[in-house]
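Consider the following assembly input.
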Amino acid sequence: MKKIILTGDRPTGKLHIGHYVGSLRRRVELQNSGLYDKIFVFEADAQALTDNIENPEKVRQNVIEVALDYLAAGLDPAKTTLFIQSQIPELCELSFYFMDLVSVSRLQRNPTVKTEIQMRGFSGESIPVGFFTYPISQAADITMFKATTVPVGEDQEPMLEQCREIVRRFNNIYGETLVEPNILLPENAACLRLPGTDGKAKMSKSLGNCIYLSDSADEVNKKVKTMYTDPLHLQVSDPGHLEGNTVFTYLDAFATDEQVARYTTDYATLQEMKDHYTRGGLGDVKCKKLLMAVLQETLEPIRQRRAEYEKDIPAVYEILRKGCEVARAAACETMDQVRRAMKINYFDDSALIQEQSLRFQKQ
Ligand code: TRP
């Protein structure tokens, strides 16, 4: 069986370094590993609209921002198909058929839907149907491209589980047609969910605690300088705490021992530096200096690539348009198989027409 990767993001804001360590970095590695037959990365604009119904301009603006972030991070259109969800109408078609396979109560039990409903303050039956059913549409996104591997954050686990259920149900009823995908989670705990620069659980635009891939070197340094560390670490000589210390969480996510050795004079590994910090005698400023150096080393090439692509925006749209064409061809192939399996392929089935004429001639 072919090994196919599919993943995507809602284009509701520029991508930040949480996206980078949580998914983007891994996608680029997977892309360059040569282990996969196909890679699809897409912008879930239709999904973004399910909770930005009255704000289409926001989604439209961010489609190009996210495309630039993808390309800047190293996704290569020669190896990865970059496309936009709304441009593949077959996704609506498949979602529609999937809706027959999922009950309302199953959707209500989806933990991600549950928390999102609470977060957005929808009460009971006031939830828009499109929003409520987005796990179904997400299952269509995944299965349409026969994805075997879906690299996403842990928050997407319930979506993948629901997708696998839909696939099993579909194949059970209509015969082996669709592929059950596997989730691929980020490798280390710090990358699972990078906290905001203020130490809050998550980076989020509304909290203003993000470091964006498109931030300038100065902006990044400024954000690191004011970053949350350990409120009990008042004097350099005080023992410091690593737990919940954002600087060290970021170092865990970004710094290699080689970088620690190169940028500091006293430590060969990050662990040695952590030991000094917890013993006491190591100030936050030194730790932040290291983090700045490490972040700049990662972000500078991304910034440069972004600047290159920004010079020719029509070319970026052209990359997306071509990606949509490739994705659409794959979608049409799957839909042919789905229609055949569901027995709604009336006109391309000469056996059916013959069978029916025989049946009626006998009468
Ligand atoms: N729900 C995902 C997010 O919010 C985006 C998404 C939509 C997705 N369809 C997908 C991710 C299919 C992986 C596979 O980030």
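Residues 6-10, 44, 47, 138, 141-142, 150, 152, 156 surround tryptophan (CB under 6 Å). Ask yourself how this observation constrains the way the partners meet.
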